[in-house]
Design brief:
By secondary structure, the protein is an all-alpha fold. It is 77% helix and 0% strand. The protein has one domain. It has eight helices and no strands.
């Protein structure tokens, strides 16, 4: 695994991710920047070395995505009643509410898949399979969004995805869980926080 390429990809991806969430909700640049972020992560991963798919069982990772969503939904219901947390969640979910549903869902899925290719693929390999360091890099990258709610979610979900990567031997299982979890977050949290 080419560590300098992984490092450069991480820095470039973090910059693009931060720029995407600095745009105004509904601005077409959001989708272009998130697409560029995903392309950077996937391209950098492919340049850095081989990414392993592993041998995921589709049903179990999908059910884990549902199980991971449920506590987040409960927490969101509580956060809705706390003004500062409500505001932080609204600021992220505004991107889903002010854009075309299909393009927002496509952006969510492509970005989630790209995160798995990069963080649980290239970064995991570059850090010799360290769960704590791989999760730490994922969290640091999420800091570029400047949203504490996203950073907090990245701590828990990053650890879960990385543990899945270790157990399954590749990115397939974590990718399935990530895509199911992200889809449920988009579909069910967005109506909780109308703009």
């Amino acid at each position: 695994m080419n560590r300098p390429v992984v490092a450069a990809t991480g820095v470039a991806g973090a910059g693009l991710l931060g720029a995407s969430l600095a745009t105004k909700p509904g601005d077409g640049r959001f989708h272009r920047l998130t697409a560029a972020t995903a392309a950077t992560w996937i391209g950098g991963s492919l340049l850095a070395g081989r990414v392993r798919w592993g041998d995921p069982r589709v049903l179990v990772p999908a059910l884990l995505g549902v199980a991971a969503f449920l506590p987040f939904y409960g927490i969101a219901v509580v956060c809705k009643r706390i003004p500062v947390l409500n505001r932080l969640l609204r600021s992220v979910l505004a991107y889903a509410q002010r854009g075309d549903t299909r393009s927002v869902l496509a952006t969510t899925l492509v970005t989630g898949a790209a995160e798995e290719v990069f963080f649980r693929g290239a970064v995991y390999a570059a850090l010799d399979g360290s769960v704590s360091r791989t999760t730490g890099v994922y969290v640091l990258n999420t800091v570029s969004t400047r949203n504490p709610m996203l950073v907090l979610a990245s701590v828990f979900m990053g650890a879960l995805f990385t543990l899945q990567r270790r157990r399954s031997g590749g990115i397939g299982a974590s990718m399935i869980t990530h895509l199911v979890w992200s889809t449920l977050m988009l579909l069910f949290l967005t109506p909780l926080f109308p703009q």
